[in-house]
Each structure stands twice: as structure tokens, then as C-alpha cells.
């Protein structure tokens, strides 16, 4: 019988042997222990950039060319069905591109809010302030770009206080069952400029530090606030912000000798804020370089009949004429001109989109002088400064009109998500790639809110026409 | 080894032993009931391992060693006899009254079918070994209440099944698989394979090694598996040796397969497609151009003229020529398959063994795809002494797959290089071969190479491939100890090790690899599961009372390390290994899950008439937060065997009659390991630095999904010939694990939650009948029918929830699960040629719209069938046997995803895809045309192609699944026990199919996949036993 007891003992022993039920993931941290140091917070700030770097309809993918594709300055050479629905204005509330932008930008905003909330438990050092400032700046920029996509530009509409004319605002961590209504345009732009201001407050102490490419500093927040003020019609504020960036920011306009090179490099003299894109983290075949090359999805070429290509071909003295490349596309007759701004640092995919650079700040100042002060002569100063640094043998002009400013956007900022916005902001119409005229406040100038948001919360107001 | 063969060998080697002193005996075994010979009855010399089986005439002959006098004759379903050995014996076996009282394997033990109070269906070996590649396929149409989803037609692809409907929305819907007492890895769960290719973990098992498979359906049967039993349990028992003669089996099968419904993949020919494209471009101009614009660009004011000019301007490779290439045969082919199985089993009083070796080699119907499996199993049982029994089981298998990417995730779209997509991307005006005989590579509308340059060429310039080597080892160690007081202790250790090495290569010039200069990627997935289960059982009879009880503890720990690396920038396309490129991305992780369980059950019966059962299990899981980790599951059941009552005894109409009922709870866990936990992922990167991001909102309150399960059924056997089972079940699942859609403003698209209630109910009927049973001819019929309903009972706040791709599914109280909720198509306006949708499907008086985005949504179908089942008829005439199996399904719809791309595209895919042949001549050309398809428009702004009731199509069908004709070759009888040859065909044809040009076999959620559809096979095989 002793054997029996032995076996019984064995059985009992087995039953009571290790039975732990605690397991932790190996590629993530529990929320409670994720952000406990300054460097954790730095990684959380990096996380916003990471979230913006790989998906579609973001700065490094379709959204980086969005306001270009909306105009007939551009054309698709071959239709791969990737971005051409933007060009044809056929995106609907069921389409994936509006969905991507909405999901990813609000996702990044939620990350800003979460990191801001978790960082409150940290000791508020100068570094923590700086990082929190960058989170506010991201939050402001993302709201601004969501507003550009899903709401009209304030200067293009009659009533910025119309109910639901803005977007849903997200300024704190919300519960999973959150159902939010749209703010007005005025409220939307107020939060955007307020967030940039808050960012500047937090970044002020570090404003003279060495610039870090891929990260907001004081002047990046200021330059973007200038842009937001311009869209909101706050011309005095826009002008003041722009002037301060030009005066104190420490940025320099590109020159004919470094202009071409600037598109192959990271963190150049004009670049105020750009997104870091690397061989590991990029939008792959939906990246800027892939759309603007004959070997990729050749859907973003310059149209022969457009102002831009006509000008660039006719003005070899302008260094910007080097920013086009003539290529043949397999299976399509003839040759075509593609923007050469995204040559790639390691294959076509790897280009940092320049989200704001000094030339734009000059143009903001010019536009604000014209619209705020009706001062064509003062505006001409900014245009002349840019042109001098682009065109060999340029002679200054005495005065400029708003059309000159828009033309400068076309020449300087093609393939940088500016053109359609410049027209509409100034209440001007454009013609799209399928020959339709689009007025500044037409329904089609903005995208539909993704239907799944309305399926979830039927109280959310859809944009008219969708 | 067979005695005869041994003798033969001895003769050959002239080693005739003189020590043998034997008596030759022979005889015939017949059935007392009908006087027919009993084939395959076992005849054993008692006290030895000498034995044989009867041949097709019921005859046997064997040598009885000196000193042995008694023969034991046994046959399943007959009473075993022991008789003194003599010459020319004539043995009559009487049918065992408990013949239908088979022993079935159930949770933590076995049970006599007559005494089992739960709902379970057992499948026997012959039902399973026919399906060489997939274990799961053999369930199709055979078991009431089981629905088998369609797999991708590629060999080795994964396949879903449903037992009694759908128990969950986002939790697992797949049953628990238990092999020889150990729960095993059956699904990839996303942890065992990359999403690039569907791979079945169950395909690592060799169906030939399996003795029986029991499907546990209700709470009484399954609750003992607690937290994982909500979707039913499949208990698999592998083969064992038997005391007596050693048997050697060799099975072989060879054949071919092709796509079962080829018309589903027919494309327009060159002339049809040119016309279609021209029309689409013409309509584009009409919509977007003024006549002046047109004149400026095309020199004409005629839209149709401009359409022609544009179509001729580079959309096609040869618009003006007469080339019309049918590309089907360049992508697909008739695939060869072969299977070889060798097994040996036998044993003596102390030791029994089974050894099986298997080899399966199946080409896929897509060129260059292949599945190969090599497997081996050894099962040993040994009685150490009168109180200790041990068993060792070891299986090892290697499955190698070659192929291409497929849509592992159904919502991904239509991958550029998946075969079906490639087929439709090819231009029919392009030629396949250049003048020099090489393959023309400029053949596609998009960026696709000639399929002959892509598929099955591993080191070609344009090659792309996915290969995997899956290795699996399953080890079981069992010990059973007899203790005093009728106690039996049993412990099982199981170690299930699976490793999947996956490799993908895109050569530098390939469609996908071009922009990276080639890409090589390797993944290494491992799963290691250790299970330890210890139970103490008690069995006691006193008078007419019989009691049994069992209690135990089980612990399972699963670890899944994962490693990946990739390289790009290859110098050569000839060498896919990573060292030949520049290093690119790497990653590794380990996932882990543990389950700890206490379990117990008790059964009681009085006089084999009244039965009662209880079961209980307490589970704790690492997949839930500490405070919500533990939960209890239980069941109660009872049965009344009415036929044992005196008033029915000996009434042949009621050979057996039993009424049974059960009620209990089962559970279901989240599929992810850490879904409850709010997390920051640390695996991102920005610039050269790391990045954290908020990856999981988490839900610490997340808990088990629980189903309350009621079952009532009766089993009735008439005249010992016909057995009927009728069952009703009702399963209410609450706290459903659901990834509830949330607003993107929260930072996420969904959040895991326990919400709502779902009710599955159904009626299952099965009948098994021996219609004719004479000496030369027999006919048996097995039929089953399931009527089922899956209804959403309760949602938070009573609000509808829409989910899925394009929110195509609706959860609404009172509606079926998997209800499709999409705009409703009215048809084509004969005047304008545009498609029309109802503005409000529930109120047609509001009129129609041409714009998809303006159309309201309505219920347009559901993926859950109302009725499904199957019928098998088996005939035997002398040495011939014939069986055919039919399955049927009614009341379900599919979402026709390929149709969205290829059939209903309405011009949207002009320039990238061909169009299904059925559209040619059936789309609008001019006012007055009454047609199915609207006018195609390039860049169609109406988007009438989008998901709507057009893409929801009926799957009603009656399909012949299997026809087998076999012949027992009555030759070489002195050397072999049996030799059977057979021809077999699977999916040969459909008797009825509601939807044309579509294979109605779709996955259980109704998705018609964009991957290779089901196949049809023609096979030849032989079974040899000696």
C-alpha cells in the first residue's frame, strides 16, 4: 500500500505545482507604467510622429499632395485607383481615404491628450514643459488639418458661427462611449490658435536651443499659428506672428545654389517643421515619392496646360524649373513631367514632408498685408524676397495683388498641399482635373465625415451634399 | 506482422522451425439474425496473440498452437463467443442487444452511448480517413448542427466550422479541439502565421491516425471544458493497437483536382472588353466634357467617337488586333495529389501498439502551389502491473507549403498578386508568348507580370512566393493507477510544440518587390503548450445503483515566441535568402497565456433506466484582469431510458428509446492575450529613435462570455435497424465579447466589451437506417437536418450596432446574427442606363437615387442558413460498394466580394481589371434596354458598384459532395486480408444552386473570398490489409 501513498503524494504534488496566471505583454507596457520619466514622455512625443508616418491620407502620403490633386494643375498619367478619387472629387462617406485621415488624425490627437494627462504626474521640469508644448502643438496642427479636410475655410464662408460648421474638438481624454458634436468654425479655430499659444508658452524657455529636425519648437508653433490665423481671417495676428518668425526664428530662405539639394536633405535652412520619414517608417507605395514618379503610381504629374508647368518650362532662370522631371510611363504614350521634390533619401519612399517652411511664412505675411492692410507695396517685399532667392537676375516689383501671391504658391509650393487652399481661402474658384469648376464654398471642397462615425452617433452632422 | 507473412518469410529463408506443433482449424462466421456471413470478425486463440479476421465469405482459417483449445470470436455489434477450436466450425453470432450502445469518448473519459445524458455525435474512422488533407472537411454534411465553412481552395489553408450556430461575435467561434485528453492548438489565432497566407494548424494532423472524433454539443457534454466550450468541443482519439493479430495497412490515393465552378472566373474576351471599355470612356466624356472640350482634345464632337479614340490610345496592348487570350490556363491548372499511408498495429495482454506513417502531396490548382505533409505516430499502451497502466503517444509531422499571398484578412481588398486578381488584371489583347517562345511580360493593365513568370518560379526575375515549413510534435504521457475503494487516479501530460517557419520573397523586378529592390522576409512562429491534468475517478455499483464521480485539476501554459527579419535591395533574384539583400526590419515578441482549472463531475444511474449527471469547472485565465479572472461553469442533466421499462421491453419497435435533457453554462475567452490591459506599445519608431503610442484602450472589467445552454432530445432505435435522434437546443449567450465600434475621437475604432445577448436555437434531426441487409446486397442511409436560428436578443440601450467592412453587418435586437445591412438596389433605369437604389429601403414611396451615397440602408440578407444538412447513401453488392453524399443549405446569403470587384464594377475598374463574362451583352447600351447591369462609366461618380443588395446573393444549394465506388478484390486471399480499390470524386456537381456563376461554399460569416474557390477532385485509391 505504500506505493499507493507515493502515487497519491505524486498526484497531490502535481495538482499543486506552479499555476501562475500573471502574464505581461513583451512589446508594450501597461498604461500605468508607460510614462514615468522624461524620456518616456519623449518617446510618447515621438509616438505622434510615428502615428503620422505610415498610413494613408497623411502628411507623407495622399494628404501631402491633396490640395494639388484637387486642381487641374495636376493630372494622373495612369490610373491606379489610389488617389484619383481625390482628383475626380468622387470620394464618398463610405470611402477609405476620408476614413484614414479622420481615424489617424483623431487617433494622434487622442495620443496627445493621453500623454498630456499622464505627464501631469511627472515633475514639471523644463524638459517636461518642452515636451508638453510639443504635444499641444501637435494637437493644434492636427485639429487644423482635420478642419481643412472636413470643414470649410473660415474666410471662404459667410458665417463662422453656424452650428456644426467646424469639427469635433478633442482637448482631453474621452471615455470609450464618447459621442461628440461638431463645434462651430469660430470655436474650432479658436481652439487651434489657443493650443498653439499654449504650446508657445511651454516652448518659450527652450526657444533658443538648437533646432531639432522633426520636432516642434517655439517658432514652429508660431509659424503654424500664423497660418491658422490667416485661414481664420485674423490678418493682424497672422502678420505679427509671421513677422516674428521671419525676424527671430533663425531660418533662412533657400537660394538658387542650395534649392535643389534642399529636397534631398533633412532639416534644411527653410524648414521650420517637417515630419521624419525613414526607410523603416513610411507610407510605402502611397508615399509622396511613389505618386510623383513614373515608376510608382504615376498619379501626380503636372498638367501641360497648367500654370505651373507652363511657367517652369518657360523660365529656366528660375531654380524651381529644376524641380520637375520628364519621364515616360510604361504603357502610356509620350513623356510627362513629374514634381521632383521627392527624390527619396533611400528609395522613393523616404522623403520628409515639409509641413511648414519659411517661404510660406513670407507668403502668409504678404497675404495678411494685402487682406488686412490692403498694402500691396509691403506685400511686395515678401514676394520679392522669395523671388530674389529663386530667379537669377530677378528685379523687384513695386506692388503685388492677391493673384500674385496665389501664383507664388503655385510656383513655390506645388506638390506641397497648398494650391487649392490658397485659391479657396481667397474666395477664388479652381478647375478640377475633370473640367469642373469648384467654388470656394462648394460642398465638394470638403470631405464627408466617415459614415461609420454617424452610424455610431447619428446625432453627428454630416457635411452638406454627402 | 501477419502470421501468414511471417510464415511466408520463413519459408523463403528456409528457416522452417521444427519446434512448431500446431492444429489447423477453419470455419465460417455467420449472423444468427439473417444468416449472412460476418465479414471482418476477429478470431483469436485465447491465451495467445494468434488470430485472424474473417474474409468476405465470413471464412477463416488459422493454426492453433499446441496446448491451446479455445477461440474467441468477436465483432462489433455482436456478442462475443468463446468456443473450443475444431475443424470446419460453423459459428453463429447473435447481435448484441447493446449493439448501438457504442462506447464514445467524452470529456475526461468514455461513456456508453445509452447512458450518456448529453448531446454528442461520434464520427468513426472510415468517415474521416477519406479526407486526406483536412480533418474538418470530413464533418461536412455528416453531423447535425455542424456547419463547415469553405476554405480557400489552396491546399493547407485554414477552415472554420460552427457547432450549433455562432456563440460569439469577437470571441472565438471555433470549437475546442482535444486530442487524446489534451486540449490542443487548432487555430492560428493570428499568433502562428503571418496574415499574408492562410494556414491551417489542423492540417498538421494526419486524418489516418484518428480512430474517432466526437462532437460535444450541449452543456452536459461540454461544460467540463468550461471556459473554452462555448463553441462546442471536438474530441479526437488516435488509433490504438488491439490485442491479437498484428495488422499491416497500406492506403494509397492519387488523383487530380481543379476549380469546382470554373464559370465563376470567366472573363470577357478581347472584343467584349474593348467594347465595354469604349462604352465606359464614352460615358465618362458625356459626364465630364462639353462638346468643345471634346473637340479640343479629340478633334471630334461625337462622344462615342472620342470613347473609341481614347480606348485605342493605350488602354490595351493591341486594340486594333484580333488577339484574344484566355488567361485562365496560365494561372490555374489541373493539380495532382497523392497520399500514402502505412500503419501497423497489434499487441498482447500487456502491451499494445500503433505505428502510423503518412505522406501527402497535394498540388494546388494555382500553378506553383503545393502542400506536403510527412507524419509519423507511435502510440504505446502498457499494463505495468495490476494497478498501473501507462500510455505514451508521440506524433510528429512536417507540413511544407509553397504558394502565394492570399487574403488572410478578408477585408484587405484584392491583393495585386493574388491569383484571382492577377487573372483579371491581364489584358486579353496581349499575347502570352513572344515570338522567341519566351513569356511576354507586358501583359497586364496594372503592374502585374505574366503569371508564368510569377507563379511557381522561385528564382525567376519576376518571382514572388510564400513558403512555409510547419513542424509539429505532440507528446502525451498518461498514467492510470488503480487505488483502493474503487478509485482510479489518472494523470496526463501533454506537450504540443508547433513551429512555423514562413518565408516570403519578392524578386527585385517583381510587381511588389520593384520599389524596394527586392524583399525577402522570414518569420518564425512557435507555440509551446504544456498541459497537465490529474483526475481522481470513482466507480461503484451497489444493487441497481451505479455511481461514478471524477474530480481533478488541470493547468495549461502556452508560450508563443515569434521572430521576424527582412532584407531588401537584393543584388540578384536568384538567391532569396536574406543574406543576399541589405538588412531591413526585425522584430521579436513572446506571447503567453495560462489557464488553471478545477473540475468535477458525478453521474448516477438506477437500473440503467434513470440517469442523472452533474458537472462543474472553475477556470482562471491570464487573458483577463486579476479581479475578473475566475469563473464557474456547470451543468445538470438527466435521461430516461424508456425502452428499459417493462411495458416496452422486448418490443422490437423500440429496440431503444431514450429521453434526455440538460442545462448548463459554458464560457468563451477573448482571442487576444492582453486585450483587457490598457497599453502603450513600445514598438514604434520616429526618425532614429523609439516611439511609444497608446495602442490598446483596454477594459479591466472585461470578463467571460457565458452561454446558458438547454438541450432536450430523444434517441429511438427501431427493430435494431433504424436509429433516430431528434434534439432541440437553445443557447443564450450573454456578456458577449465584442469589439464595440467607438468614435475615432476616442483614439480607437473599437473597444473590447461585454455587451448584449445572443440566442442560438435549433432543431436537429438525424436518422441512420439499414434499409436493406441481405447476403449480397445492403443499403444504408444516413440523413441529417438542422434547422437553426441565431437571434440578437439584447444590445446596450437597445441601439443598433453596425460593424464590419463598410459597416455591412447589423446587430439589431430581434434580428439574425450576420444580417447584411446595405443599400437596396432597384435595378437599371431603362431610360438613363444608371443604376437605381431606393432612398429608403423601408419606404419605397420616397423614391430612388442614382447615387449610392444617398441611398439609405436596409436589411438585405443574412449569412446564417435556416436549414442545412446532408445525406449519405451506401450500397454494397457482393464485392462492390458505392456511396454518395449530398449536402444542402437554404436561407443564407453571401457577400459577393469578388463580384464587387469583377462583376458589379460598373466601369470603376476600367484600366485595372477585366470584367466577368456575364456582364457582356447584359449592360445598358441605349434607352429602352432592360438589362441587369447599368452603363459602365469610367471614374463612375455614382459608385453604384459599392456594397449593396446587388452584392448580397443567395447561397441556397444542394450539392453532391462525394461519390465513391469501391471494389473488394477477391484475389490473393491466402496472402492478404483485404484489398479494396476505389474511385472517388468530391464536389462533382451541384443538383441545385440559386446563384449562377458563383460557388456557394463561402465562409461561415458569408464572405465569398477573393481567394481560390473550392475544388473538385477525381481520385483513385486502394486499401490493403495483411
Write the layout of secondary structure elements.
The complex is a heterodimer of chains A (466) and B (1026).
Chain A (H helix, E strand, L loop, with lengths): L1 H15 L11 E3 H4 L3 H14 L14 H4 L4 E2 L8 H4 L8 H24 L6 H25 L34 H19 L14 H15 L2 H14 L10 H4 L8 E4 L13 H4 L9 E2 L4 H8 L9 E5 L6 E5 L14 E4 H16 L2 H13 L13 H12 L5 H7 L4 E2 L5 E2 L12 H6 L10
Helix pairs in contact in A: 3-6, 3-7, 6-7, 7-8, 7-9, 8-9, 9-10, 9-14, 10-14, 14-15, 14-16
Chain B lengths: L2 H10 L9 E10 L10 E4 L5 E3 L5 E7 L4 E5 L6 E4 L4 E5 L9 E4 L2 E4 L7 E5 H4 L17 E3 L12 E3 L12 E4 L2 E3 L25 E7 L2 H4 L10 E6 L5 E16 L10 H19 L2 H8 L4 H9 L16 H4 L3 E13 L3 E13 L6 E14 L4 E16 L15 H7 L25 H4 L9 E20 L3 E20 L12 E24 L2 E24 L13 E25 L3 E12 L8 E12 L14 E13 L10 E8 L2 E8 L8 E14 L3 E20 L8 E24 L3 E18 L6 E3 L5 E3 L7 E5 L1 E4 L6 E4 L9 E2 L7 E6 L4 E11 L2 E11 L2 E4 H6 L49 E3 L2 E12 L9 E16 L13 E2 L6 E11 L1
Parallel strand pairs in B: 1-7, 13-16, 45-49
Antiparallel strand pairs in B: 1-4, 2-3, 2-5, 5-6, 8-9, 10-15, 11-12, 13-14, 15-16, 17-18, 17-50, 18-19, 19-20, 20-21, 21-22, 22-23, 23-24, 24-25, 25-26, 26-27, 27-28, 28-29, 29-32, 30-31, 32-33, 33-34, 34-35, 35-43, 36-37, 37-38, 38-42, 39-40, 40-41, 43-44, 44-47, 45-46, 47-48, 48-50
The CATH topology of chain A is given as Serine Threonine Protein Phosphatase 5, Tetratricopeptide repeat
Largest interface: A-B, 98 and 91 residues
What is the terminal-to-terminal distance of chain A? 84 Å
What is the helix content of chain B? under 10%
Which architecture of chain A would the CATH scheme give at its second level?
Answer: Alpha Horseshoe
Q: What is the tally of beta strands of chain A?
A: 9
Please give the CATH class of the domain at 103-257 in chain B: Mainly Beta
For this entry, give a set of tags:
heterodimer; A: mainly alpha; two-stranded antiparallel ribbon; B: Immunoglobulin-like; Ferric Hydroxamate Uptake Protein, Chain A, domain 1; 22-stranded antiparallel β-barrel; 10 helices
Amino acid at each position: 500500500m505504500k506505493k499507493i501513498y507515493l502515487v497519491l503524494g505524486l498526484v497531490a504534488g502535481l495538482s499543486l505545482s506552479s499555476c501562475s496566471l500573471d502574464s505581461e505583454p513583451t512589446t508594450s507596457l501597461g498604461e500605468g507604467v508607460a510614462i514615468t520619466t522624461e524620456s518616456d514622455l519623449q518617446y510618447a512625443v515621438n509616438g505622434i510622429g510615428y502615428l503620422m508616418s505610415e498610413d494613408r491620407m497623411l502628411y507623407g502620403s495622399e494628404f501631402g499632395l491633396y490640395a494639388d490633386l484637387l486642381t487641374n494643375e495636376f493630372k494622373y498619367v495612369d490610373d491606379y485607383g489610389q488617389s484619383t478619387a481625390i482628383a475626380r472629387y468622387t470620394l464618398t462617406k463610405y470611402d477609405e481615404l476620408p476614413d484614414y485621415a479622420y481615424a489617424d488624425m483623431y487617433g494622434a490627437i487622442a495620443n496627445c491628450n493621453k500623454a498630456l494627462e499622464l505627464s501631469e504626474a511627472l515633475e514639471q521640469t523644463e524638459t517636461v514643459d518642452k515636451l508638453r508644448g510639443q504635444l499641444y502643438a501637435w494637437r493644434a496642427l492636427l485639429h487644423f488639418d482635420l478642419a481643412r479636410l472636413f470643414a470649410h475655410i473660415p474666410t471662404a464662408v459667410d458665417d463662422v458661427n453656424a452650428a456644426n460648421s467646424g469639427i469635433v474638438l478633442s482637448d482631453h481624454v474621452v471615455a470609450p462611449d464618447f459621442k461628440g458634436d461638431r463645434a462651430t468654425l469660430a470655436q474650432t479655430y479658436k481652439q487651434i490658435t489657443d493650443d498653439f499659444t499654449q504650446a508657445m508658452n511651454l516652448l518659450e524657455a527652450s526657444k533658443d536651443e538648437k533646432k531639432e529636425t522633426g520636432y516642434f519648437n517655439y517658432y514652429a508653433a508660431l509659424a503654424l499659428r500664423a497660418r491658422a490665423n490667416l485661414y481664420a481671417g485674423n490678418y493682424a495676428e497672422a502678420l505679427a506672428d509671421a513677422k516674428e518668425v521671419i525676424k527671430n526664428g533663425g531660418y533662412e530662405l533657400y537660394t538658387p545654389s542650395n534649392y535643389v539639394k534642399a529636397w534631398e536633405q533633412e532639416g534644411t535652412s527653410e524648414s521650420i517643421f517637417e515630419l521624419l520619414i525613414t526607410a523603416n517608417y513610411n507610407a510605402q507605395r502611397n508615399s509622396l515619392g511613389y505618386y510623383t514618379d513614373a515608376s510608382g503610381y504615376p498619379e501626380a504629374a503636372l498638367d501641360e496646360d497648367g500654370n505651373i508647368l507652363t511657367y517652369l518650362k518657360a523660365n529656366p532662370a528660375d531654380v524651381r524649373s529644376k524641380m520637375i522631371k520628364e519621364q515616360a510611363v510604361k504603357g502610356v504614350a509620350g513623356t510627362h513631367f513629374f514634381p521632383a521634390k521627392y527624390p527619396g533619401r533611400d528609395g522613393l519612399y523616404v522623403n520628409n514632408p515639409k509641413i511648414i517652411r519659411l517661404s510660406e511664412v513670407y507668403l502668409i505675411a504678404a497675404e495678411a498685408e494685402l487682406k488686412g492692410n490692403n498694402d500691396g507695396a509691403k506685400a511686395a517685399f515678401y514676394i520679392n524676397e522669395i523671388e530674389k532667392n529663386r530667379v537669377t537676375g530677378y528685379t523687384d516689383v513695386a506692388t503685388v495683388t492677391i493673384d500674385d501671391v496665389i501664383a507664388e504658391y503655385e510656383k513655390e509650393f506645388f506638390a506641397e498641399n497648398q494650391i487649392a487652399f490658397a485659391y479657396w481661402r481667397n474666395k477664388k474658384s479652381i478647375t478640377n482635373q475633370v473640367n469642373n469648376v469648384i467654388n470656394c464654398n462648394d460642398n465638394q471642397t470638403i470631405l464627408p465625415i466617415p459614415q461609420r462615425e454617424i452610424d455610431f452617433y447619428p446625432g453627428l452632422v454630416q457635411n452638406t451634399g454627402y | 506482422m501477419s502470421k501468414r507473412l511471417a510464415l511466408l518469410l520463413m519459408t523463403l529463408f528456409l528457416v522452417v522451425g521444427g519446434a512448431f506443433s500446431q492444429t489447423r482449424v477453419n470455419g465460417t462466421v455467420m449472423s444468427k439474425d439473417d444468416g449472412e456471413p460476418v465479414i471482418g470478425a476477429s478470431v483469436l486463440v485465447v491465451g495467445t496473440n494468434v488470430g485472424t479476421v474473417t474474409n468476405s465469405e465470413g471464412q477463416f482459417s488459422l493454426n492453433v498452437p499446441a496446448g491451446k483449445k479455445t477461440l474467441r470470436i468477436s465483432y462489433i455489434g455482436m456478442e462475443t463467443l468463446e468456443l473450443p477450436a475444431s475443424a470446419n466450425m460453423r459459428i453463429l453470432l447473435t447481435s448484441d442487444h447493446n449493439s448501438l450502445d457504442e462506447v464514445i469518448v467524452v470529456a475526461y473519459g468514455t461513456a456508453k452511448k445509452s447512458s450518456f445524458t448529453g448531446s454528442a455525435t461520434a464520427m468513426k474512422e472510415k468517415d474521416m480517413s477519406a479526407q486526406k488533407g483536412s480533418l474538418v472537411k470530413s464533418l461536412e454534411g455528416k453531423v447535425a448542427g455542424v456547419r463547415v465553412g469553405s476554405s480557400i481552395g489552396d491546399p493547407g489553408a485554414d477552415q472554420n466550422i460552427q457547432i450549433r450556430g455562432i456563440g460569439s461575435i469577437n470571441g472565438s467561434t471555433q470549437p475546442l479541439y482535444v486530442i487524446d485528453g489534451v486540449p490542443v492548438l487548432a487555430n492560428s489565432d493570428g499568433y502562428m502565421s503571418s496574415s499574408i497566407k492562410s494556414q491551417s494548424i489542423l492540417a498538421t494532423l494526419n486524418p489516418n491516425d484518428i480512430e474517432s472524433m466526437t462532437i460535444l454539443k450541449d452543456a452536459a457534454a461540454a461544460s467540463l471544458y468550461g471556459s473554452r466550450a462555448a463553441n462546442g468541443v471536438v474530441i479526437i482519439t488516435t488509433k490504438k493497437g488491439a490485442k491479437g493479430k498484428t495488422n499491416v495497412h497500406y492506403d494509397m490515393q492519387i488523383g487530380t483536382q481543379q476549380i469546382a465552378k470554373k464559370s465563376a472566373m470567366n472573363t470577357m474576351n478581347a472584343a467584349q472588353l474593348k467594347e465595354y471599355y469604349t462604352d465606359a470612356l464614352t460615358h465618362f466624356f458625356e459626364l465630364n466634357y462639353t462638346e468643345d472640350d471634346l473637340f479640343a482634345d479629340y478633334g471630334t464632337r461625337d462622344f462615342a467617337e472620342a470613347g473609341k479614340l481614347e480606348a485605342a490610345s493605350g488602354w490595351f496592348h493591341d486594340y486594333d488586333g484580333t488577339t484574344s487570350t484566355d488567361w485562365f490556363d496560365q494561372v490555374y491548372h489541373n493539380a495532382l495529389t497523392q497520399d500514402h499511408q502505412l500503419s501497423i498495429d497489434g499487441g498482447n495482454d500487456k502491451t499494445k501498439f500503433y505505428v502510423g506513417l503518412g505522406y501527402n502531396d497535394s498540388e494546388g490548382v494555382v500553378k506553383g502551389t503545393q502542400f506536403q505533409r510527412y507524419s509519423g505516430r507511435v502510440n504505446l499502451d502498457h499494463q505495468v502491473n495490476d494497478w498501473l497502466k501507462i500510455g505514451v503517444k508521440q506524433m510528429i509531422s512536417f507540413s511544407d507549403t509553397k504558394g502565394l499571398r492570399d487574403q488572410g484578412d478578408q477585408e484587405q481588398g484584392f491583393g495585386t498578386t493574388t491569383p484571382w486578381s492577377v487573372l483579371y488584371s491581364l489584358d486579353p489583347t496581349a499575347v502570352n508568348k513572344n515570338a522567341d517562345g519566351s513569356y511576354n511580360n507586358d501583359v497586364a493593365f496594372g503592374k502585374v507580370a505574366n503569371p508564368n513568370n510569377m507563379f511557381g518560379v522561385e528564382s525567376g526575375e519576376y518571382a514572388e512566393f510564400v513558403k512555409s515549413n510547419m513542424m509539429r510534435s505532440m507528446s502525451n504521457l498518461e498514467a492510470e493507477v488503480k487505488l483502493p475503494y474503487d478509485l482510479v487516479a489518472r494523470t496526463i501530460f501533454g506537450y504540443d510544440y508547433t513551429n512555423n517557419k514562413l518565408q516570403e520573397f519578392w524578386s527585385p523586378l517583381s510587381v511588389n518587390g520593384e520599389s524596394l529592390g527586392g524583399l525577402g522576409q522570414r518569420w518564425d512562429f512557435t507555440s509551446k503548450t504544456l498541459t497537465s491534468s490529474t483526475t481522481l475517478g470513482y466507480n461503484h455499483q451497489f444493487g441497481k445503483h451505479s455511481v461514478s464521480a471524477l474530480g481533478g485539476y488541470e493547468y495549461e501554459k502556452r508560450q508563443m515566441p515569434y521572430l521576424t527579419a527582412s532584407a531588401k535591395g537584393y543584388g540578384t533574384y536568384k538567391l532569396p535568402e536574406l543574406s543576399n539583400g541589405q538588412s531591413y526590419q526585425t522584430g521579436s515578441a513572446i506571447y503567453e497565456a495560462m489557464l488553471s482549472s478545477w473540475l468535477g463531475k458525478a453521474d448516477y444511474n438506477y437500473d440503467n433506466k434513470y440517469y442523472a449527471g452533474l458537472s462543474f469547472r472553475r477556470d482562471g485565465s491570464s487573458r483577463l484582469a486579476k479581479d475578473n479572472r475566475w469563473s464557474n461553469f456547470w451543468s445538470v442533466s438527466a435521461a430516461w431510458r424508456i425502452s428499459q421499462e417493462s411495458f416496452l421491453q422486448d418490443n422490437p419497435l423500440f429496440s431503444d428509446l431514450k429521453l434526455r435533457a440538460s442545462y448548463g453554462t459554458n464560457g468563451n475567452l477573448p482571442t487576444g492575450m492582453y486585450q483587457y490591459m490598457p497599453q502603450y506599445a513600445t514598438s514604434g519608431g520616429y526618425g532614429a529613435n523609439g516611439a511609444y503610442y497608446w495602442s490598446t484602450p483596454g477594459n479591466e472589467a472585461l470578463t467571460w462570455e457565458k452561454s446558458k445552454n438547454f438541450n432536450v432530445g430523444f434517441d429511438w432505435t427501431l427493430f435494431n435497424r433504424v436509429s433516430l435522434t431528434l434534439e432541440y437546443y437553445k443557447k443564450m449567450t450573454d456578456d458577449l465579447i465584442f469589439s464595440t465600434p467607438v468614435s475615432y475621437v476616442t483614439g480607437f475604432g473599437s473597444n473590447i466589451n461585454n455587451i448584449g445577448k445572443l440566442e442560438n436555437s435549433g432543431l436537429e434531426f438525424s436518422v441512420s437506417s439499414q434499409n436493406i441487409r441481405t447476403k449480397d446486397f445492403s443499403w444504408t442511409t444516413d440523413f441529417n437536418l438542422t434547422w437553426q436560428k441565431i437571434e440578437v436578443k439584447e444590445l446596450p440601450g437597445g441601439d443598433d450596432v453596425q460593424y464590419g467592412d463598410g459597416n455591412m453587418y447589423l446587430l439589431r435586437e430581434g434580428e439574425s446574427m450576420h444580417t447584411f445591412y446595405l443599400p437596396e438596389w432597384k435595378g437599371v433605369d431603362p431610360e438613363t442606363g444608371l443604376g437605381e437604389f431606393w432612398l429608403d429601403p423601408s419606404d419605397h414611396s420616397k423614391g430612388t437615387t442614382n447615387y449610392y451615397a444617398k441611398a439609405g440602408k436596409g436589411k438585405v440578407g443574412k449569412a446564417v442558413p435556416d436549414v442545412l444538412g446532408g445525406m449519405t447513401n451506401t450500397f454494397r453488392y457482393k464485392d462492390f460498394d458505392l456511396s454518395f453524399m449530398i449536402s444542402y443549405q437554404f436561407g443564407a446569403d453571401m457577400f459577393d466580394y469578388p463580384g464587387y470587384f469583377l462583376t458589379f464594377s460598373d466601369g470603376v475598374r476600367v484600366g485595372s481589371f477585366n470584367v466577368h463574362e456575364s456582364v457582356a451583352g447584359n449592360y445598358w447600351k441605349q434607352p429602352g434596354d432592360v438589362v441587369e447591369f447599368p452603363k459602365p462609366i469610367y471614374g463612375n461618380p455614382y459608385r453604384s458598384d459599392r456594397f449593396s443588395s446587388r452584392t448580397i446573393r443567395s447561397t441556397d444549394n444542394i450539392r453532391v459532395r462525394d461519390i465513391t465506388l469501391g471494389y473488394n478484390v477477391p484475389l490473393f486471399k491466402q496472402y492478404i486480408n483485404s484489398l479494396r480499390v476505389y474511385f472517388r470524386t468530391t464536389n462533382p456537381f451541384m443538383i441545385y444552386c440559386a446563384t449562377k456563376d458563383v460557388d456557394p461554399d463561402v465562409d461561415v460569416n458569408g464572405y465569398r473570398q477573393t481567394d481560390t474557390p473550392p475544388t473538385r477532385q477525381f481520385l483513385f485509391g486502394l486499401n490493403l490489409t495483411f
